[in-house]
Please model this.
Amino acid sequence: MKKGVLVFLWVIGVIFVLLVAFAILQPFLWELFLGDKTPAPDITITFSSLLTVMIALLALGVGTLGGMTYYVISRRIEEGLKKSAEETYMRTSALTLIHIGFMCWRNYEVEHQLEVKNRHLEHAFEFTHYAYEKYAVNLVEENRDNKKLICIVKNNLAYYLAECCQPNIYKDINWGYLSDRCKLSKNRATNCKLALDYAEYVYKRTNQFPDRIEKWLHTYYFVQELYNNCTMNNKMGVKN
Model:
């Protein structure tokens, strides 16, 4: 846009210089090419006429620049609205799946039948993982609302996965299903490390969201303890 304005002003300047030069030199040019015997027509260019031409050129330029400006601004507004709509859609979709995952978690907490109970836990992780991989991962983290949503997703993923990796629960989880749906490893140590990665991501941003500090720190310490126990078992040769 700036380059276009400079080119336009340069063209106007060149035209103005040529017109002034022609106004000054026209009597000499007439005599040079037609001789002094041919009467010159009454078309002498005066400075008032030059001013009129310049005003006309400037008016044309203002109109042209106005049209260019309108086009550029309208395109940017259109692109901004499209981006905003896409971002809103991704946030809303992610939040919906996060809530579904949380409802599965609540069902897991109150269910007593072991097989059904563990399916709720698997679905809690599955829906939350889908919220992250399909939507939240595409959000721009520089936006505070987006950053908070990404932290919520990763916090929940860390907690659900750590729960799945608890020694008394791990063997009853359908890791084949989670491996197919969420690309999880079937190795407990690997999954404990993944849960810790999620939790550490959130932990580093905890101070930015005071209303979430307590919950996110609880998740971090819960996952860290699990990871430390898992690592210790590996060093002691205990099968995970």
Observations:
- The radius of gyration is 36 Å.
- The mean pLDDT is 81.
- DSSP finds eight helices and no strands in the chain.
